[in-house]
Design goal:
Elements lengths: L12 H8 L4 E4 L9 E3 L4 E4 L5 H17 L7 H10 L4
Parallel strand pairs: 1-3
Antiparallel strand pairs: 2-3
Protein name: IrrE N-terminal-like domain-containing protein
Organism: Brachybacterium vulturis
Length: 91
Amino acid sequence: MGEDTAPVLLYNPWRILRTDWPHVELKHTDDIPDGKLADTNGVDEIRMRHRLLQVDRRCALAHELVHLEHGDGGTCTPEVEAEVSLRAPAG
C-alpha cells in the first residue's frame, strides 16, 4: 500500500451488530412471514430465517440494522421497506 492510499474499510454488518447494537439478540428461526428473510421488533431483537446463503444473511442483517437505526418494528409500509432497501449497504 502506497503512502497516498488509505486502507479500504469494508462494511461488516456482523461487526456493526456486535459493536453498535450489543443488546440486540439475533435469533435464527423460520417463524417469519412469507417473503421475508428477516425481521426486527425495532428495539432488541432480529429474527432471521434458518438455512440462508451467507450473502442473504449479510444482506438481511444490513437491512434490519437500518430498521433498528430508525426504530422501525413490526409491519412497515411498502414505502418504508423501499427506503430501507435503498439505504442498506449491499452484502
